[in-house]
């Protein structure tokens, strides 16, 4: 009490979540501290078929995303049809993949663009929420503002001098209206990059449980090693 740390081994590295606990049950909000996040590229001109030249930022928050305002694509992140936003974001993702090579300081397996996040363009610090939609993987849309996406966006805003350490911003999903908050809590280095540790906070709810069983007859019940 009043909070329980939970360390998670994610593909990008260890992430620590903090869950409110009153001795009987968990509560909200839940928060986590990210892996080092950084700006991979800013003000990068990309030629997007069907849309022409656009300017994107690329940020890393556990995975890489391209960021740009939906307005650059002739859309409104708050009012345009989701299908139109998805199509435009996917076109940006494919264009960036072809025109910009990513680098990860520790693992080239992580040096790929996971998706594109379209925003309302409100990157400078403000008390009001800023809205975005995250289109990732195979044209999937996140129901939330996206934990790794908020992390990357905070890293970009910090890199550009638009926010300071411990300035909290609120992020809204354009699809569901769900809210996350995020803030850069520590400056650090990650390879050659100036990076930050970002704290992301939001509501979390149980969606299921898993049970693992060990049978005595299982010859590999304790695991195994490859030599």
From TrEMBL:
<dbReference type="Pfam" id="PF05544">
    <property type="entry name" value="Pro_racemase"/>
</dbReference>
<keyword id="KW-0456">Lyase</keyword>
<comment type="subunit">
    <text>Homodimer.</text>
</comment>
<dbReference type="GO" id="GO:0050346">
    <property type="term" value="F:trans-L-3-hydroxyproline dehydratase activity"/>
</dbReference>
<protein>
    <recommendedName>
        <fullName>trans-L-3-hydroxyproline dehydratase</fullName>
        <ecNumber>4.2.1.77</ecNumber>
    </recommendedName>
</protein>
<dbReference type="InterPro" id="IPR008794">
    <property type="entry name" value="Pro_racemase_fam"/>
</dbReference>
<comment type="similarity">
    <text>Belongs to the proline racemase family.</text>
</comment>
